[in-house]
Structure formats: structure tokens, C-alpha cells
């Protein structure tokens, strides 16, 4: 889900996220993406093969005022991306440069992070669909 959603964000195809991302998050993303430079937008995309590490940051079970049961999982992702970002972007780390052929042909990769929170209702009879209720790409999507 992270790879699919991050690519759709990068391509500004927010209409395809209606079933995956909460309406509140989509509204915030529409505003932020309209102001984002192209190189930062390109850096949002995480190819599934470029995800280096994932970990859960927080897992919560809670009930709303109507007694419905929910589970929320915050996932953290570290992924490599070849977007043309300046070297001084705070919060990211240049991992390595790959040299193909001669010295004039270099491919830079940056190790970037993202936090996505997934929520699902576990009340008996509820649809078993997960919804993304938070999307953070530090230093890129602020």
C-alpha cells in the first residue's frame, strides 16, 4: 500500500486514493502537493524494490463513543529514491553514488523516510478495509 500510494502522490493522482486514504488527509495533501517543487514530488515515490526497511512505530486498539472497535498501526518506511534533491536537504542522507562507465555518469540515491498510519474498524460486521489516516514524508511534504 505504501508503494502504491506514494507513487500516486508523486503523480498527483489523488482521485485514485479515495478508497485508500481518509478524506481529511486527502484534503491536506491536495493543498501541500500544489505547492511542492517537482523534485520533492518525485522524491515521494517509493518503488517496492527500493524499500530498505520498515518498522511499526505505534499500534493502538481503541473504541469510539459508539462502542466501535478500531486498530491503528503507524508504519515507518526507509526507501531509496533517485530524485534530483540538493545535497543539503535536511533530514535525509545521501547513501551512495553508483558510477556506470566513466566518472561523468553517476546515479545518486537518497535514503528517505515516510510515516503512514493505517486504521481499520474491527467491530463485528464492519468492512475489513484499511484506511490511511496519516501520511508524512519529513522534509519533503511539509
From TrEMBL:
GO molecular function: ribosome binding
Gene Ontology cellular component terms for the protein in this record: mitochondrial inner membrane
Residues in the signal sequence: none
GO biological process: protein insertion into mitochondrial inner membrane from matrix
Xref: PANTHER family: M-AAA PROTEASE-INTERACTING PROTEIN 1, MITOCHONDRIAL (PTHR13333)
Name assigned to this protein: MAIP1 protein
Lineage: Eukaryota, Metazoa, Chordata, Craniata, Vertebrata
Amino acid at each position: 500500500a505504501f508503494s502504491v500510494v506514494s507513487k500516486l502522490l508523486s503523480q498527483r493522482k489523488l482521485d485514485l486514493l479515495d478508497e485508500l486514504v481518509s478524506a481529511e488527509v486527502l484534503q491536506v495533501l491536495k493543498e501541500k502537493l500544489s505547492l511542492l517543487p517537482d523534485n520533492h514530488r518525485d522524491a515521494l515515490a517509493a518503488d517496492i524494490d527500493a524499500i530498505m526497511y520498515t518498522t511499526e512505530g505505534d499500534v493502538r486498539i481503541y473504541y469510539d463513543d459508539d462502542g466501535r472497535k478500531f486498530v491503528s498501526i503507524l508504519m515507518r518506511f526507509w526507501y531509496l529514491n533517485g530524485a534530483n534533491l540538493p545535497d543539503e536537504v535536511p533530514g535525509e542522507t545521501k547513501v551512495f553514488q553508483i558510477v556506470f562507465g566513466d566518472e561523468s555518469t553517476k546515479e545518486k540515491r537518497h535514503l528517505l523516510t515516510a510515516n503512514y498510519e493505517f486504521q481499520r474498524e474491527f467491530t463485528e460486521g464492519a468492512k475489513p478495509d484499511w484506511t490511511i489516516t496519516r501520511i508524512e514524508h519529513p522534509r519533503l511534504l511539509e
